[in-house]
Every structure is written in C-alpha cells, then in structure tokens.
C-alpha cells in the first residue's frame, strides 16, 4: 500500500465528433486540474477523443499502439504537467476488420506509457427509444488492468465493467480504482451511483469515476456525475449533473488502512 497521499482528479466532458476539438478541451481541463486543483493523477472519460455521429466513426480514427495524435497528446500532457494520466479510452486498431479495441492507456510523469487495459465487457442495451451494441464495432479485451503508481496500486475498469464485480476481485487489493465511462442517461440515472459505491465498499478502496456528461452532437445523452468515493463508500466529491468539469479529492492511505483494519472483509474472503 502507498504511504503517500495525493490529490486526484477526474475530467468530465461532452465530447464531439471532432478529435482535434476534444484534444483541445482535454489540454485545457487537465491544465486546470493541475494548476488550480493540484492534481497529481488525472483520469479522462471513456471515448474522450471522439463521440462520432455513427459507431463506425471511431474505426476511422483508430490508432496503432504507440503512434498517433491522440496518444501523442496524452504523453505530452503527462510529461508537461508531471502527472500520472489515465487516458480514458481511445480506439486502437484491432485484428478484426471494421472493429477497434476500446483502450485505456496509462502515462507516467515522464510521459511514458506504462500500462494498458482493453475494455472487457461490451455494453448492450435497448428500450423503446434507444439501442446500443458495442460488440458491433469493438473487440473485447482479455486481461485485467492494474498498475503501480507513486500513490499505490491502481485498478482499471471501463464503464459497463462496473456491472461485473468478479473483474474487480481479480485485481486483488488495490488503493484506487479508476472508471472512465460514458453511461447513458437512462442507465446512469438508475445505477451509476449504486454501482460505484458498491465497488468502493466491497474492495475497500477509493473509486474515481470520469464520465461523459451531457447531450452530444450525435444526439446521445450521457449521465455525467463524475465523482470520488472513499473506501467506506462515502461520496467525497461529485459533479452533480452534466456538462464539462473537474472533480477530485485526496487519496489518503491512512483511510484505506483504517477501514481494512476495522472491517477486515478482504481477509475474510472464502471464494
């Protein structure tokens, strides 16, 4: 477990179909998170570089691992501000034609990519007014995502992953879980807060969620409500609604240790 406290921040966006616009927004918000909020670790939302007019739009801008303007921008931000940057998700080229990997890349304060997680669980939902099927354009990942940082061990999950607690158990004890997301307004209103609190409580760690939030150019409406939850399940900070913004707070290793000492649930596990 880390012995260092750190201020962490989540970026909330209403991404557009134009990659360059979204990169400019991220540069502005990350600088604000660092300069005005003192963030040492920053998380971007899912699909931050592009929320296209069609699902296939992201295929057209998918990058090869290690190369491309989206990855270059994230590396530059991490290096310039000397932060740990969890790059939400970007589309990476997959082996399946017409499909991408929905990938979170992690950059250290030197701007080096040090970890990667490809979203494992692909969202599917339909009601009378909306329908989503990520499997049409995304290939699922196969490996659990974790990385050691200056501030402890961080587990990685993306949006729909929240509904599968076995993924989080597979991480083992972590100090922080980061969750970039683009929850729909419908599912977010119903389940977002509950799922985030459950993952924090059962894993006795902080959870930092960076969401898309608002009505996008393509007409999709995302829930927002980016937030930080502590290991007792208490809400520490939230963007209470939609629109771009920054939310964060202090990650305190003493709080993690105290919760696990008072209620050693992780030691009591049977399965």
Give the C-level CATH assignment: Alpha Beta
Number of domains: 1
Outline? globular
How would you sum up the major sheet? 7 strands, mixed
Which band does the percent of strand residues land in? 25-35%
CATH architecture: 4-Layer Sandwich
CATH fold-level assignment: Nitrilase/N-carbamoyl-D-aminoacid amidohydrolase
**Based on helices, strands and strand pairing, what is the structural class?**
alpha+beta
How many helices? The count is 6
Order of helices and strands: EHEHHEEEEEEEEHEHEEEEEEH
Low-confidence stretches: none
Characterize the structure shown.
The longest helix is centred in the last third of the chain and has 19 residues. This protein is globular. The chain is built from 6 helices and 17 strands. Strands 1, 2, 3, 4, 5, 6 and 17 form a 7-stranded mixed sheet that branches. The relative contact order is 0.18. The chain has one domain: 4-Layer Sandwich (Nitrilase/N-carbamoyl-D-aminoacid amidohydrolase). The protein is α+β, with helices and mostly antiparallel strands and 271 residues long.
In terms of topology, how is this protein built?
Elements: E1 6-12, H1 19-35, E2 41-43, H2 57-60, H3 69-81, E3 84-86, E4 90-93, E5 100-107, E6 113-118, E7 124-126, E8 131-133, E9 145-149, E10 152-156, H4 165-170, E11 176-181, H5 185-203, E12 206-211, E13 213-215, E14 221-223, E15 227-229, E16 235-238, E17 245-251, H6 253-262
Parallel strand pairs: 1-2, 2-3, 10-11, 11-12
Antiparallel strand pairs: 1-17, 3-5, 4-5, 5-6, 7-8, 9-10, 12-15, 13-14, 15-16
Helix pairs in contact: 1-3
């Amino acid at each position: 477990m880390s012995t260092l406290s750190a201020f962490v921040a989540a970026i909330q966006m209403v991404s557009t179909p134009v990659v360059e616009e979204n990169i400019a927004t991220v540069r502005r918000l990350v600088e604000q998170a660092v300069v005005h909020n003192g963030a040492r670790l920053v998380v971007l939302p899912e699909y931050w570089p592009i929320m296209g007019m069609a699902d296939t739009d992201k295929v057209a801008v998918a990058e090869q691992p290690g190369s491309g303007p989206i990855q270059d921008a994230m590396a530059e931000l991490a290096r310039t501000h000397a932060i740990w940057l969890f790059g939400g998700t970007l589309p990476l080229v997959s082996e399946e034609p017409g499909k991408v990997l929905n990938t979170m890349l992690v950059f250290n304060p030197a701007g080096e990519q040090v970890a990667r997680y490809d979203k494992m669980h692909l969202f599917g939902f339909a009601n009378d007014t909306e329908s989503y099927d990520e499997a049409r354009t995304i290939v699922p990942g196969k490996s659990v995502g974790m990385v050691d940082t200056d501030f402890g061990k961080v587990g990685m999950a993306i949006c729909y992953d929240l509904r599968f607690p076995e993924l989080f158990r597979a991480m083992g004890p972590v100090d922080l879980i980061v969750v970039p997301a683009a929850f729909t307004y419908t599912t977010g209103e119903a389940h977002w807060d509950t799922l985030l609190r459950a993952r924090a409580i059962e894993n006795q760690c902080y959870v930092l969620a960076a969401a898309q939030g608002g009505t996008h150019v393509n007409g999709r409406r995302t829930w927002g409500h980016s937030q930080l939850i502590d290991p007792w399940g208490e809400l520490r900070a939230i963007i209470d609604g939609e629109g771009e913004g920054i939310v964060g707070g202090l990650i305190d290793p003493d709080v993690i240790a105290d919760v696990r000492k008072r209620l050693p649930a992780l030691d009591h596990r049977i399965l």
